[in-house]
Amino acid sequence: MESLKGRLLVSAGGLFDPNFRHTVVLVGDHDEEGAAGVVLNRPSSKAVAEALPPLAPLVAPGTPLYRGGPVRPTHPVLIAEFAHPELADLLVFERIGFLVGEVPDDLEAGIQRVRVYAGYSGWGPGQLEREMTEDSWIVAPARADDVFTDEPESLWRRVLQRLGPDYARLSEMPFDPRTN
User: Fold this and answer.
1) Cα–chain center distance at 5
2) Rounded CA gap, 117 and 52, in Å?
3) Separation CA 177–CA 158 (nearest Å)
4) Do residues 63 and 113 make contact, with C-beta atoms less than 8 angstroms apart?
């Protein structure tokens, strides 16, 4: 399978895993050893300043901490848009990349926008490929505005609608189909 790095994984209608139901995941890395990314559309009720005070200067006051996935949920992962892409620890697409580990103090000037996530999403060797054959995910191109959307709760629906009429019906599917 071609690498999905820099692409979006949009959960399909049959994916009922609560970690990924109605999610949009930005794939940061994908090769024969597995894949990793972050869920873009799950803001938490905690602000970055409350949960991770040292990272608060990187974001606007009141900015929520996002839940990036079930792997290492106590570790921060940052996605940023860089003025100079070479500053990214892992460049994903265009000027969007990941920062992992310690964030250097002087890096703030090179960041245009940033989101802070608790944890990430990960797949072992062959796991994502298997999920793709099970139609668990729909692949879509990523845009910077997807990563930094002001309306993360509607991102799943909007990305599906952007994919065209074949996905219009799915985009209206409720989180819990039993409530339909």
Assistant:
1) 12
2) 10
3) 19
4) no
CB neighbourhood size of 10 (10 A):
25
Q: Mean pLDDT, the chain, as a whole number?
A: 93
**Distances in whole angstroms, Cα of residue 63 to Cα of each of 43, 53, 141:** 9, 12, 26
* Cα 131 from Cα 20, distance rounded (Å): 12
What pLDDT digit, counting tens, does each position of 28-68 carry? 999 999 999 999 999 999 999 999 999 999 999 999 999 99
Contact status, residue 69 vs residue 38, Cβ threshold 8 Å: yes
Residue showing tokens 């606007």: 60
Torsion of CA 157, 159, 161, 166, to 10 degrees: -110
Query: Which amino acid, 47?
Result: A
